[in-house]
Amino acid sequence: MKSGQLRASLWLLVLIAPLLCIWLAGWGFAIATGQGHLWPGEEQGVLLVQSAMVAAPFLGLALAGSSRLSRKTVKYLRPRLGAAIGLGSFTTFLFWLLYYWDGYRYWRDDLSGGANIGLGLLMLISPIIVAAVMIGGYVWGPLRNSKRY
What we know:
With 149 residues, the chain is an all-alpha fold. The chain has one domain (3-143). The chain is built from four helices and no strands. The protein has helices at residues 3-32, 44-68, 74-108, 117-140. Helix 1 (3-32) packs antiparallel against helix 2 and helix 3 runs antiparallel to helix 4. The mean pLDDT is 85.
């Protein structure tokens, strides 16, 4: 993979992650709960903020990765960026799976009450956690292939 292709892939991920986690999954959740005709309704602002939350760590990776890419560094950076992308995508998926599962459980069991404050706080700091996991993947991901172990 050339540096231009890798750079384009990083920027494409900034767009794809929110589309999958927020817009497509939200639409699927609305269909699954029988509220597809209401989606997105009055929640466009919320969906935009959630999209920004999902995109933020990937935007940071795209900015950092694009600034360091050149023909000479692609071979060195590709496994590091791959580990960061893989771990960041997996962690993001887990957070949003938890978010939708909580909403589904609330709908399925016909629960009454307020919002899940703990989950809300966790979702607010999720971009920081995802970014930390991505940094860890970038730093330690290639170590599994090294000759030292």
